[in-house]
Amino acid sequence: MLTDNILRNVMKPGRYTGGEFGQTVKDKTKINARFAFCFPDTYEIGMSNLGMRLLYHALNQMPDTWCERVFAPWPDMEEQMRSNSLPLYALESGDPVKDFDFMGITLQYELCYTNVLNMLELAGIPLLAKDRGEDFPIVVGGGPCTYNAEPLCDFFDVFSIGEGEEALCEMVRLYIEMKSSGSYTKAGYLRELSHIEGFYVPSLYRVEYNPDGTVESYAPLYPDVPGKIRKRIIKDLDAAPFPDTFVMPYIETVHDRITEEVYRGCIRGCRFCQAGMIYRPVREKSPDRVNEQVRCLYEHTGYDEVSLLSLSISDYSRLSHLTEKLLEWTDREKVSLSLPSLRADTFSKELMDRISSVRQSGLTFAPEAGTQRLRDAINKNISEEEILRACSLAFAGGKSNVKLYFMLGLPTETKEDLDGIRDTAMRVAEEFYRTPGRKGRAPQVTISCACFIPKPFTAFQWDAQDSLESLSEKQRYLAEIISDKRLKFNYHDAYASRVEAALARGDRRLGRVLLECRRLGMRFDAWDEFFRYEDWIKAFSAAGMDMGFYANRAFSTEETLPWDIIDIGVTKRFLLSEYNRSRESKPTPNCRESCSGCGANRLGGVTAWCPKASE
Predict the structure, then answer these.
(1) How far apart are the C-alpha atoms of 313 and 308, rounded to whole Å?
(2) Complete domains list, the chain, with CATH
């Protein structure tokens, strides 16, 4: 059991004690299903995740179900747990995870996969699904990484594909019904679960491979098992479950604030962006509902900052009306309104004035590429003039710090595009001095460059990632040519990006690699201080796999992709069309300008008051 002596020997014991205000505690004698919601990273990151809060609330609305929280222990706590034979436990009850009915693991980021296996081991649950008998929990995965879950198929019983507020409740209800009727077996339950839209049971499919190592086919083992798994969506966000309070941490978390989702999906269609495809179609929450939920959370938590969450907040069709409603009371209560994910082409003085009514801060824009040709190729649909106009508005409003996000290694990238990154940032800095009414003596423009990763369900899913040598050379080149003291250059680790690309585009055979990672004791690979590229090379080598086959190979547009078994609504034909348009640097209009026929509208879900509902 957890003791004071254990807590005295770890940093931040508040990560492991539970007992927070707002947590859900139920009478175990009245519970028919227990769900351990596991976040494979630290408490501070997991407690900042809105998806975890939504699903925790949705499951706990079921009177006979108890959902509890579990987080990955930091290495100091892991050491204490192993030396004291303390298994992985849930915060609310302190009970071991292996005693639950479900172990649900959210998969937000590929480099957290090593934490997933470590958490299974700490829980005393066999790593491989085939080795787990009737007495172990059903291990279910969810989150964005399940859109290509193949590298993890050996370790999970089932994956929830898409949005889980309704789907997970249906999954648990089926379990309770089969248990109460006496018809439950794990195999029978998983077979029945596969009939519910949005659930992928990997053990019910056979995968064949071609001699060259590519996937030949996926085939269900039984005629009643669907050939493809269509993702689940919430069609009406206004009616979706949403908590009236949050669990209030005892320690500081990454996002100590109210987070309110205003819509799902994206109208833009950037060709590198997986989220912009997998979360389609766009569904908006009404301003009245957003305001109601934010006000309720403020009254129950006392947070003094509200962040409106979306993929591109300035694309919310009634943003002006929403901010007016919120400012009617947030100004009075001295609550700061934060609008992340702003686009330069829709940024305005009115918007800036509203979000700066309480706090002053820098602004972030994402040109993604340094030239118009490449921005057209990736369908960013933003011009340098719009970037400069937005920055000028920010400077006129008293801001002097601007951050610009770019990507290195994009398909069709040239040296001219790299020079364009520096040139764009220089023009932003020079715009400061051309702006009337600016404040401050000098601007600070931060250039942040990530490495392009070809992700499933994007127009660039067939492209190879740049080699390590090429990415490293591009980083060195930019570091040399960005010498102006007004510019600051940051870049992401190319080695971690290569591993991420391999896992993102991997097939089931990468399960062998992840087992080797566990044997090597790897975990927290999303953290720079723990990521060791040489260990990933060892793991791939020991498993007889080639990282470059997945990361640095251009996939044929004719081959079966590891994620072809999933139906996200957006068609492969549309993605291929976008791939071909990118080679000609032809942009595609956003969804409000005209429909390009991506296919996602067949899933439904546009709210009745939305201007696009009648089309």
Answers:
(1) 7
(2) 4-230 (3.40.50.280), 237-603 (3.80.30.20)
Helix (H), strand (E), coil (C) string for 435-499: CCCCCCCCCEEEEEEEECCCCCCCCCCCCCCCCHHHHHHHHHHHHHHCCCCCEEEEECCHHHHHH
For residue range 70-84, what is the model confidence (pLDDT) as tens digits?
999 999 999 999 999
Q: What is the mean pLDDT of residues 507-536?
A: 98
Stretch 581-600: mean pLDDT, rounded?
95
Tell me phi and psi for residue 425, to 5 degrees. -65, -40
Dihedral in degrees, nearest 10, Cα atoms 577, 579, 585, 586? 20
Give the pLDDT of residue 114.
98
Report CA 292 to chain centroid distance, whole Å: 26
Contact 138, 101 (CB under 8 A): yes
What confidence score (pLDDT) does residue 346 get? Answer: 79
Q: Which residue has the tokens 């940093």?
A: 11
**More confident of the two residues 608 and 480:** 480
Cα 426 to its chain centre, rounded Å, is 32
Global model pTM greater than 0.90: yes
pLDDT of residue 113: 98
Three-class SS of 210-245: CCCCCEEEEEECCCCCCCCEECECCCCHHHCCCCCC
Token pair for 506? 């991997």
How far is it, in rounded angstroms, from Cα 387 to Cα 368?
A: 11
The residues near 312 (Cβ < 8 Å, ≥ 6 apart) are 266, 267, 268, 341, 342, 343
